[in-house]
Amino acid sequence: MTEEHAYPAVVALGGGHGLFATLSAARRLSRDVTAVVTVADDGGSSGRLRAELGVIPPGDLRMALAALAADDPDVQDWTDTIQHRFGGIGALAGHSVGNLMLAGLTEVLGDPVAALDELARLLRINGRVLPMSPIALDIEADVQGLEADPRVSRCIRGQVAVATTPGKVRRVRLLPANPPACPDAVRAIEAADMVVLGPGSWFSSVIPHVLVPELLDTLIATVARKVLVLNLAPEPGETAGFSTERHLHVLSRHAPGLAVDFVVVDSASVPPGREREHLDRAAEQFRARVVYADVSEHGTHTHHAGKLASVLEQLWSGPDPGSRGSVVAETPEERESASWQ
Asked: What ranges does the record list as Basic and acidic residues composition bias (predicted)?
């Protein structure tokens, strides 16, 4: 963090609604937030535009732009417009306006990053939204439980197929293998003060980032404070039946050598007792401290932006990442939310 800025440069990696939640929190902590977004979606409007125009899937990128858009009333109309989805039964049915704008800007400007920067200017974003890779990717998974013999694995392909499988996902890969990283995303992580990974669909929005070799190498090498935010509950489909600690074991298998400073866990989702002991031990493979805090919207499985921002602010200003063991963070009732709220 430079002397001119009283806030950290934050990079958030993920996709979909999980990344939207992280960005909604991070913008309360900092005026310098960069989103690094997965590009493997093959469903809905994104899948159609990807197949028809050859662009990287724009849906998760559009959601990240909306999460970081300025709150000014004259910008709100644009934010609402890019999020608007056409109805009806015609060719435009189901398409989001923002998806079409990104696809059109990409064709006009010849560069998806330039298209994102142009739309970011329209929305007066302090920061950037970047794809994790400049090319569209596919997810391939080894899944058990789809055959008569539950021990037999079947290979399935596609983000939608992986996210909705009734089987148990064991491992995922990206196609093409070892894809290139977006150079600007790499530079953003190198320059970051804090990097946040998760929450989100574990196999299709979180783990893909560590399967891009240059992104993983940069995440391992960065001196930024690294924060892993766990989901509030297992997701139907790809992580059904997962314990909280299993999320850590699965990520570790896909990202050998990755260390993080903090693992943020909703305190209500893992009550005190044996499960926390197992989770604390699982975090040791990342050399991380587990932070238990109230970070959920009451009665939902959605992260509360203000509560998560408060925790991120505490992790930025302290405690020492070199410490070990778990810690219980102050609740928003005990501490005001982050200064940029």
From this structure: 332-341
Q: Same structural domain for residues 147 and 282?
A: no
Helix (H, G, I), strand (E, B) or coil at 84: coil
- Distance between CA atoms of 246 and 251, rounded to whole angstroms? 9
**Six-digit token string for 276:** 């926390």
Sign of torsion, CA 155 159 163 166? negative
Nearest in space to 68 (alpha carbons), one of 129, 5, 131, 133: 129
- Indicate whether 145 and 57 sit together in one domain: no
**Residues 148 and 166 placed together within one structural domain of the fold:** yes
Domain count, the chain: 3
Torsions phi, psi for 147 (to 5 deg): -110, 170
Quick one: 178 exposed, middle or buried, by C-beta within 10 A (0-12, 13-18, 19+)? Answer: exposed
Tell me the pLDDT tens digit for each residue of 241-263: 888 899 999 999 999 999 999 99
Nearest CA to 63 out of 182, 185, 200, 223 is that of 200
- Domain boundary among the residues 131, 157, 189 is at 131
**Claim to verify: residue 102 and residue 113 sit in the same structural domain:** yes
Residues 190 and 217 in one domain: yes
pTM of the model: 0.93
Cβ within 8 Å of residue 269, ≥6 positions away: 232, 233, 244, 296
Q: Are residues 98 and 167 in the same domain?
A: no
Residue with token string 């003060």: 193
Measure the N-to-C terminal CA separation of the chain; round to a whole number of Å: 19
Report whether pLDDT(330) > 70: no
The one-letter code for the residue type at 141 is A
Res. 29: pLDDT tops 70: yes
Contact (Cβ atoms closer than 8 angstroms) between residue 326 and residue 244: no
Give me the domain span that covers residue 102.
40-131
